[in-house]
Amino acid sequence: MVAVAIPAGQPPRRLGSPVELLGVSKSRPKGEGREAGGAVLNQINLHVTSGSFVSIVGPGGCGKSTLLRLLAGLDLPSAGHVLVGGHNVKGPNPRHGIIFQEANLFPWLSVLHNVTFGPLMLGIRHDEAEAKAKHWLNFLGLSRFLHRYPHQLSGGMQQRVAIARAIVNDPDLLLADEPFGGLDWITREQVCDELLRLWHTTRKTFIYVTHALEEAVYMSQRVIVLSSRPATVARSIEINLPDQRWDYPELRFTPEYAHLVEEVRTVFTEQTAAQTGASLL
Amino acid sequence: MTAQELQVTRPAAEPESVAVAPDAILPPSNRIINLGAGVGVVLWLLVLAAHRLIPQVGASFKVPADYLTPVALVVLGIFGVTFGIAYRLPTQRPRVLAIYRVLIVLGAVLIPWEVASRLAWIKPPFFPSPSKVIGVYIEDSSKLLLSIAYSMRLLVVGYLIGCIAGVSFGLALGWSRRVSNWSMFWIRLIGPIPATAWIPLAIVIFPNSFTAGVFLIAFASWFPVMMLTWSGVAGVPKALLEAAQTLGADEKRLLRQVVIPAALPSVFVGLFMSLGTAFAILIVAEMLGVKAGLGWYITWAQGWSEYHKVYAAMLVLGALFITVVSGIFKIRDRLLGWQKGILRW
Known about the structure:
Chain A is of the alpha/beta class. Helices cover 35% and strands 21% of the residues of chain A. Chains A and B meet through β6, α2, α4 and α5 of A and α1, α10 and α11 of B.
């Protein structure tokens, strides 16, 4: 029954870190970013328990990506605290993996070496790094493509390599910023299931930013809806659906599921309407 | 269910299109090979005929050594051997055809040249006969070889210094805002000054003509390499840097393992560009008073009105350039093999 042998020396599984946002605000000086500057995030308070899967949705341009960049340490908040595992986030940290909108693979490295990049940066021995990388590439169905270059892969496969590259460092927190936006729907559903399976196996803390509401419901234990810019938490909706959702192909057609999607959509529409109203004034 | 069991239920990897089969190229047909060999042999027989049958107009009593006849015979021999190879080993046909193309063009050029020379339409010393030019490689080979060695020494030392300086400066400029803020103005001012304008200063500063030549060549290759390295570093996508940072890369490894490989294609454009300039400066530098080298050889031959030597040395320069360029191409193919399939290779 065992499809994948866990390489020897793999550290014991542990839950991911809890994440806490305390009064986090972010503003940009004029002339930067898409708009004229000003506040992007306004007093966000959020608590994500360790090992949970949380999705963040919100109107376009509301600051979802900014929030994720703060969690990844790629930006620092203007006010408030971003805490992962009880520590302030001060900069990029290999313990906080991130999957970007684009796969952002290193084009000069093969699939295998893209994935070993992280472990080697952390000073892990070469053979051990390769064993880890092969393990996760195998998990994601890429074992036949170890020696391909990224440009020889389809978009879905590139994104899978990006997932492997993020998870191979054994991070406590895995962030994803609309990672499957560029994929067609069939591939997208497959990769989503793969990510869910990955979460289920590793029990890291996953924070998933998306604009696809239905996908957010399907993936997460909790959906956070952000308000329009400057973003605050508009609503947090618990998703009480079975864990191993890929085993229930009819799940998407149940009344509970439809109800949850409707609930998220209602809050989302209110927020979008507020934004449109504001810009009309 | 355990984690491992779950993986069994996962769908098989989707059979997405990945394989890019190399285009199957059919070997050239018999007809093409026959045609190539036929045209080539006819042309070279004509070369031979022009050389042997047309009497030399205005011949002096001293008959010059005949080098064209053996060359033409060797070429005809080559046609015979390669023709055999083309039929024995069809995979070698593209190579055989490449040789045919060169020899056909060479023959087509030699016929009118030889005829004009025989009928004294063109006259030595400025326009010597083909035989006389070929003769240089035999009669003057030791001096020519020595000149090649001296030229290569000057070129390699100067070019390497220039490239190393160019890549280092370019990396520093692209990576550190402080370095670029301080030096941008000066580099813009000094960089575009042609290397030849430095000759007066180079002669004064450097103890001998070799070091002065090295300086001029290094200076000429430094600027293009630096500018293209700089633009390569500046063009590294920010997203790649951020991806590397979130994977645990510190500043030093970011530079070595992300910035340098990402900038390398641009660096190679700079290396190729500056090689042309380096060659031009090589000849100028050798005319400054070096005692050996191809540039010196050309000047010296011109002084004696031995134009056949000038032309022979020019051909050698061309061949040297091709050799060096293909060497750099080999290095590029090794380092940038990943670009195959992205660019037209």
